[in-house]
Amino acid sequence: KDDILELYLNQTDYGHLAYGVEAAAQTFFGKSARDLDLAEAALIAGLPQAPSLYDPLLYPEAARRRQAVVLDLMVKQGAASAEAARLAKDEPLQFTSEPFPIEAPHFVFYVWNLLERKHGPEVLHSGLVVTTTLDLDLTRAAEGILRRRLAQLAGPAGGPRDSPPHNATDAALVALDPRTGQVLALVGSPDYFDARISGAINMALAPRQPGSAIKPITYAAAFSPELCALLPHSPLPEAAGKGTGDCPWTPATMILDVRTAFVTREGFSYVPQNYDRAFHGPVTARDALAGSLNVPAVVALDHVGLPAMIRLAGRLGLTTLADADRFGLALTLGGGEVRLLDLVGAFGAFAAGGRRVEPAVILQVQDAAGALIEQWRPGGGEPVLDERVAFLITDILADNNARAATFGFNSVLQIGRPAAVKTGTTTDYRDNWAVGYTPDLVTGVWVGNADNSPMRNLSGVAGAGPIWHDFMRAALAGKPVTAFAPPPGLERAEVCVPSGGRPTPLCPRTRVEWFLAGTAPTGPDELYQAFDIDARTGGLADANTPAEAVVSRVFMTLPPQAHEWALAHGVPQPPADHLQTGAGQAAPLAISSPDPQTVYQISPRLPRDSQKIPFRIVASRPVREVTYLLNGRAVAAATDSPFEAWWVLEPGAFELQARARLADGATVTSAPVRFSVNAFAPPETPAASP
């Protein structure tokens, strides 16, 4: 039995050309098998069952799950203690390998893994001749750019003297031809053999959170006519362009970038923030996507719904988002995980006019005798998105003017020719992304750390952006400039910005916008309106106002939920005694504070009478008096604007309503808002030891 075990350990396939446990230890950890610790040994012991499925350099999460199975079996058999197994499961693994001559190692081992999974390990040693899609010159260029830009991010030693270190040690790049799906370059790290960064792990295939790089898919869902059937509450398409209730949305649709509370699937309040921690008021969908504003993106996902967005993402090739139950509205801000290779393929669909782009790396496989085993054949790609919608997304992502407010007019996102691009940055700066394309080339870049440690103050445009810029310019140098051609079924119309309505003489800013045929707005802009003001009182002029005291003024008439933003940003609103006409059919009264489903905690460190929350309302009609009802009982009243009341926290579950007497004598009641307050619970005192 010992001889059989020795033979097994010395000849078993562990993947990555490693046969035998000693070779596996050197391949994955750069050390002898006798020097492996429990965590490393358990991981290697689990590989022979399916080396291609549990490859720790391509699928580290699957490998760790298999490692856990081995450790649990060791505990069951008495070969390891439960505590030792727990520590081994939590131990960070540092993958490395003894250096050996190889070009494009991450690409090579990815191809090897695909062949092994498709044909079995025996076929791989029969003298196969494999022709791949790799462009070695582009790959070498990508490797050089990654190293140079990461050195600059490391701080003064590699960049400007005043640049701080950003703790960005790793990066990956994928480039493919959107017309064919052929992968031209796939670099999983700047140095395959650098153990300090776990360089052998292929970060082009590792699931990571994409940040804002996922937003184009949300807006594509909102722009898609076919998804309107999934939104029974939406009006007919001919109303498009007049508000966020329309279906489909258009690039001219107005979205309110103001403080907005959403209720999560778990029943908690969720208030998204923009990257710059500011709100920008009414914006068009074009400006919101190009400028990567977070609040409008969440509004967009709330409009289309998670199932519609995830369905489209799956059709584009993002299979890691298939489990809809895991995600909430933060999905549109990068709350799920995707692979760089898959995201590049998804963006390829935008470049390919809405046809799915399947990344391909193998062109041909022949056996030792020259017989053909496998042959790649070009295909048109399955249509997965309306080609007109794909063009709208492309046109927005290529609009330097629309993104200038966020990125400036001369950012690294410009490459000297038409190119569409989206960046992404995740919470705590753990991931940087830049994914963009021309009609001929799609390139995606990820920057971060393989161990998931955070970088320091590094956004996507500053981290991944320069790598994307340098590679695109290098790859396209000397090639003809190609523009994005609009497909049939589109029309252009002039609109007022940001309302999206037809311009009137009062509109201060207009834009010629693209629309799906039949969705251009037909009604005039109602955001900018003129009012006759009594110069003596500041109120609306009436029959008693002398002609010499009447002054005509133009106001941006914002809906009630944007009034707080308008006040904070010095945007004057018409006198309160006018009736809102430009805000759509909003509810006459709504509670703006507290947020729905908020949970408050009473603190023992503060006086109880200082622990208060404000009750506030927004109204679309003039109000004279507001009464606040808590669990059906009147607890506060306000007779002056802004009709605010403060309430001292009490433990319990509460339902708040507001009842208002309007200027016309009518009485209206708001929809209820539920919140709860937790009493202070002192920590339990541990029992004394005997």
Description:
The protein has 690 residues and is an alpha+beta fold. Among the domains are: 1-98, Penicillin binding protein transpeptidase fold, CATH 1.10.3810; 589-678, Immunoglobulins (Immunoglobulin-like). 26% of the residues lie in helices and 20% in strands. It is built from 16 helices and 25 strands. Strands 18, 20, 21, 23, 24 and 25 form a six-stranded mixed β-sheet that branches. The chain has a five-stranded antiparallel β-sheet with strand order 3-2-12-11-10, sandwiched between helices. Strands 1-8-9 form a three-stranded antiparallel β-sheet, with no helix packed on it. A hairpin with a 5-residue loop joins strand 8 (362-366) and strand 9 (372-375). Helix 4 runs antiparallel to helix 5 (82-90), helix 7 (136-153) runs antiparallel to helix 15 and helix 8 packs across helix 10. The protein is globular. The protein starts with a helix and ends in a 12-residue tail after the last strand.
Structural class of the secondary structure composition? Answer: alpha+beta
Cα end-to-end separation: 52 Å
Count, helices = 16
What is the CATH domain class of one domain? Mainly Alpha
Unreliable residue runs: 157-161, 234-243, 580-585
Radius of gyration: 30 Å
Report helical residue fraction: 25-40%
Tell me the CATH topology of one domain.
Penicillin binding protein transpeptidase fold
SS strand fraction: 15-25%
Using the alpha-carbon principal axes, give the shape: globular
Strands, total number:
25
Mean of all residue-level pLDDT scores: 89
Major beta sheet summary:
6 strands, mixed
The assigned CATH architecture of one domain is: Orthogonal Bundle
